[in-house]
Design goal:
The chain has 713 residues and is mainly beta. Strands 1, 11, 14, 15, 16, 17, 18, 19, 20, 21, 22 and 23 form a twelve-stranded antiparallel beta sheet that branches. Strands 38-39-40-41-42-46-47-50 form an eight-stranded antiparallel barrel. A five-stranded mixed beta sheet has the order 3-10-9-5-7, with no helix packed on it.
């Protein structure tokens, strides 16, 4: 049977018309893969750029960046003509640089445009849109056969051992070979795609760059895999990261899994062509916890499982943790081979799966099994660490866990403070993440890690005093300087001395205000005069961010019947901008929109706003209205994102766009939780609480996320 892989159309996921990309100039596909006939030296692919409207000629700049960008010829600028919603851009591809089994890749970016697109002009990254492109030659695939012991032609199957992006083992995978080549494909390798590699004449191997079939929405592109030398573009790397064939059915690959922004993992992975006698003996061990026998004795349930290639195996238990100690594992293996017991427990020789109760005291142990093949040869030693804990003396236990808002505590604002209470036992280490739920969901998807591993790698570490309190009478702390009206997630990882772990999570929300709460009896005159402003100022730096309570004076004066001038929104002595706003009669509030504010030193300042994820200099606004006797600054109706803070952004020119944005702000400072009180009603300075230094910022992709730190009280 002959299989054909022939793509006559351009393939790739379409953009999301309901997402942010539907509001701006965009490619209609975020990625594209196309195959060409092997007799071609040149090819063409069509790239379509679209916009929301169709009015006027519109010029768009395109940037070509990638490992093989020189093989793709795309214009630096194209124009969508008046009356058209899109334009098709032909891209010429030089196929002379392409070899069978490999691919050429690049990325196209929209780097600039003629003007903003009206109200939806929020630009949050250097390149507003991106498209990844990959081209390769068509290969005619044939099912690959081998001869069995009886001389019959049977389909070649393979076992793949994953250690990189995926872990584990897959067996019985069918193998194809491209007609007239030594290019092989292992089918259903991962996410439904095949894994291609080239076997060279000297028994070395090449793994060309190829998609693993997993689309990472955080990067808007597929994850790719190749050998290290292909990734680095340097054949000398095979000396450090070899890809070889042993001539007897086993291939060893040094692979890297990556996207254009970086790589996820580097690992040595193994492919074994299966044969009649090449079945690999494999075993698994499970710890089933503590059970009570018919005689009333509590004991540990251990189960051993062996595949058909295991003739028999030796099983026992040793004290301590062997799983990370290769020297101890080799010693135990040799003792089992020599017929010796490596510990105080008996050694059982078993010929089939076994599940039984073992009389083991409380403590830290490792179950081991040594497999023997059909020729009575000892093979791999299998290990499983477990904690035998019949009376709960060792397991980490969370006895109480609460994450909550408490408006009854007058000293803590329910709009910006959440509490955490916890008690437990047998806990020796604790890590936690406290983050806005939308940010938490973002990093959870971005890293793609199990919850325990996410907290382990990204969490904040609690000091010993806190752990002692949790194990004692309990512990209560609070998180402050939070955004009002937001839901937060608290995720906690605890471990005991043996490394056993438990994860607990909870959600809680700060109280929130809305522009619907504004006092509708207020007129424009109520907004004029001098005010005492309080806000939280957050200064970001290379080592994180620090926050503090700010107090400064703000003056609002009339420009005409609807417009006002606001001075003093900055607490910095060297920057005193005059911000324009207008009074909205329906909202009964003063509305401020992003706007240019002149120069700061050698750069141009611009009032920008943020929802904590993205920075906006268009398409958003903030409304200042009365709730009681105080003016609060909230996101205005129809604002892009739930903006709650502002910055004085810096640009290299008077035109504010993604190309001129310097990724800096005046004083590196963000102002949030702004409130204004008429000077006659201003609270005393002593009522403003210091909330400095209790947040930790880190980057995940193109986003900056904030993990809150506890106040120990």
């Amino acid at each position: 049977m002959v299989l054909f892989s022939c793509s006559k159309v351009q393939e790739g996921p379409l953009y999301d018309s309901n997402g942010d990309d539907g509001k701006e100039i965009h490619f209609i596909q975020s990625s594209l893969e196309k195959e060409f006939g092997t007799d071609l030296t040149e090819g063409t692919i069509d790239v379509v750029i679209a916009r929301p409207g169709n009015s006027g000629d519109y010029s768009v700049g395109i940037l070509n960046r990638g490992d093989d960008s020189d093989a793709f010829s795309i214009p630096e600028s194209v124009t969508i003509p008046d009356g058209a919603y899109s334009v098709t851009v032909p891209v010429e591809v030089d196929l002379s640089k392409l070899i069978r089994g490999s691919s050429l890749k690049t990325s196209f970016y929209i780097r600039e445009r003629e003007a903003a697109l009206g109200d939806n002009s929020a630009y949050v990254s250097r390149y507003t849109d991106k498209m990844t492109v990959s081209v390769s030659f068509e290969l005619v695939w044939e099912e690959y056969y081998r001869q069995n012991g009886s001389g019959e032609e049977v389909r070649q199957t393979a076992t793949f051992i994953y250690n990189g992006f995926y872990t584990g083992r897959a067996t019985g995978l069918t193998v194809d070979r491209a007609e007239g080549t030594n290019i092989f494909r292992v089918n259903d390798w991962a996410s439904g795609v095949g894994f291609r590699f080239i076997l060279n004449d000297d028994n070395t191997c090449t793994v060309p760059a190829q998609s693993i079939g997993y689309f990472n929405s955080n990067y808007n592109e597929y994850v790719y895999v190749s050998d290290m030398a292909v990734y680095l573009g340097d054949d000398t790397a095979y000396g450090t990261y070899p890809c070889t064939y042993d001539g007897n059915g086993t291939f060893t690959f040094n692979l890297i899994y990556y996207v254009s922004a970086g790589y996820f993992s580097i690992a040595e992975e193994t492919l074994i062509f299966e044969s009649d006698a090449s079945g690999s003996p494999e075993m698994a061990i499970e710890y089933g916890g503590i059970e009570t026998s018919e005689t009333g004795v509590s004991a540990a349930r251990l189960s051993f499982y062996a595949n058909d290639y295991v003739k028999y195996y030796k099983a026992t238990v040793v004290s301590g943790d062997l799983t990370a100690n290769a020297t101890l594992q080799n010693s135990v293996r040799q003792q089992l081979i020599d017929g010796q017991a490596p510990g105080s427990f008996p050694v059982l020789t078993l010929y089939e799966d076994n599940s039984d109760l073992w009389n083991i005291p409380a403590g830290n142990f490792t179950a081991v099994a040594l497999a023997y093949d059909g020729n009575d040869r000892p093979c791999n030693l299998y290990t499983l660490r477990f904690t035998c804990d019949p009376d709960g003396s060792y397991s980490p236990q969370v006895l109480g866990f609460d994450f909550y808002n408490d408006p009854s505590l007058a000293a803590y604002s329910p709009y910006s403070t959440l509490f955490w209470s916890m008690s437990g036992r047998n806990i020796v280490s604790l890590k936690y993440i406290c983050m806005r739920t939308d940010m938490f969901d973002y990093i959870y998807g971005y890293y793609g890690l199990p919850m325990e591993e996410l907290i382990e790698t990204q969490g904040n570490t609690a000091v010993q005093t806190i752990i002692d309190n949790i194990n004692g009478d309990g512990f209560t702390t609070y998180f402050s300087n939070m955004v009002e009206g937001m839901e937060y997630t608290l995720a906690v990882l605890v471990k005991n001395s043996f490394g056993d772990s438990q994860v607990v999570t909870a959600k809680a929300s700060t109280m929130g205000r809305s522009y619907e709460d504004f006092d509708r009896t207020k007129t424009m005159d109520d907004f004029l005069g001098a005010f005492s402003a309080t806000a939280t100022g957050t200064v970001s730096g290379s080592s994180g961010s620090t926050s503090s309570a700010l107090r400064y004076r703000v003056d609002i004066s009339r420009k005409n019947d609807t417009q006002v001038l606001i001075t003093g929104l900055s607490d910095m002595r060297d920057f005193t901008p005059a911000v324009s706003g207008y009074y909205d009669e329906e909202l009964h509030a003063v509305v401020i929109e992003p706007q240019p504010l002149g120069t700061y030193r050698s750069d141009y300042a611009f009032l920008g706003m943020s929802d904590g994820f993205s920075i906006y200099w268009g398409g958003c606004s903030m409304a200042i209205g009365y709730i009681g006797d105080t003016l609060y600054c909230l996101a205005a109706p129809g604002s892009t994102g739930k903006v709650y803070s502002y910055q004085f952004l810096l640009f290299s020119s008077e035109t504010a766009n993604s190309s001129t944005y310097l990724r800096e702000s005046v004083g590196s400072k963000t102002y949030s939780s702004l409130s204004l009180s008429p000077l006659a009603l201003a609270p005393s300075a002593s009522s403003v609480r210091d909330v400095s230094g209790y947040a930790n910022e880190f980057r995940a992709g193109d986003r900056t996320v904030t993990s809150y730190l506890m106040h120990e009280d």
